[in-house]
Recover the amino acids of this structure.
């Protein structure tokens, strides 16, 4: 079985400050990890992924994430937050064992960036 | 390339009725997955189709079914609707290029069951 935990329901940060949205996972086999963002009344938008290779992956809109195998974490980061980053963020995992694209999502973290 | 499209965007049905939702994947994507999003349960995987075959299935009752056509378009059907089926239903397509495992989501169909 695979699972994802996003321990914070909401993260508040001031514009211009760095932001971190936390994610830990559990999966058998090697993990494929993803971050998605959802704006109100919209579908999910892909931000970045970790499949293999460098532990620091860069994605869209200046976001990056750090894969830490020993801590089974994949935290989303951005050096300087924008008000427009305010949205709901989801971490997701799938295993590299077995076929198929089943993603298991975390419960989501609401990011609020204030002026 | 055009993104994933879903129709209809909004739907209101009555308990006991059935509903069919449609999804057109990104051109060239052969994998289509369906997810249900509710405030209480979050995002839950329903099923995945690849080359017209169901490849994965989540923990949903048999009232939820799907299919995929030869052009990769997919439909999902929910029979005997219950109030708890009210949700945003999201379709996602994925390329079959090795290493490209990300899924691209459509805008969703908002189903309200009254």
């Amino acid at each position: 079985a695979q699972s994802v935990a996003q321990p914070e329901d909401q993260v508040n940060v001031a514009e211009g400050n760095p932001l971190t949205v936390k994610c830990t996972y559990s999966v058998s086999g090697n993990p494929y990890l993803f971050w998605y963002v959802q704006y109100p009344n919209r579908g999910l938008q892909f931000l970045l992924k970790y499949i293999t290779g460098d532990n620091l992956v860069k994605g869209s809109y200046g976001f990056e994430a750090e894969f830490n195998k020993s801590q089974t974490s994949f935290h989303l980061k951005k050096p300087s937050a924008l008000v427009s980053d305010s949205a709901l963020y989801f971490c997701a995992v799938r295993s590299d064992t077995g076929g198929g694209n089943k993603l298991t999502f975390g419960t989501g973290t609401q990011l609020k960036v204030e002026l | 390339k055009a993104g994933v499209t879903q129709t209809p965007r909004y739907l209101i049905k009555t308990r006991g009725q059935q509903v069919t939702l449609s999804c057109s994947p990104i051109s060239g994507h052969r994998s289509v997955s369906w997810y249900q999003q509710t405030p209480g349960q979050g995002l839950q995987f329903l099923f995945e189709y690849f080359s017209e075959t169901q490849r994965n299935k989540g923990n949903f009752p048999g009232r939820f079914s799907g299919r995929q056509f030869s052009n990769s378009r997919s439909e999902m059907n929910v029979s005997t609707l219950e109030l708890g089926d009210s949700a945003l239903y999201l379709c996602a397509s994925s390329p079959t290029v090795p290493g490209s495992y990300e899924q691209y989501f459509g805008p969703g169909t908002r189903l309200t069951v009254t």
Remarks:
- Chain A touches chain B at residues 32, 34, 36, 42-46, 49, 51, 90, 94, 99-108 (CB under 8 Å).
- The radius of gyration of chain A is 14 Å.
- Chain A is about 0% helix and 50% strand.
- Chain A has a mean pLDDT of 94.
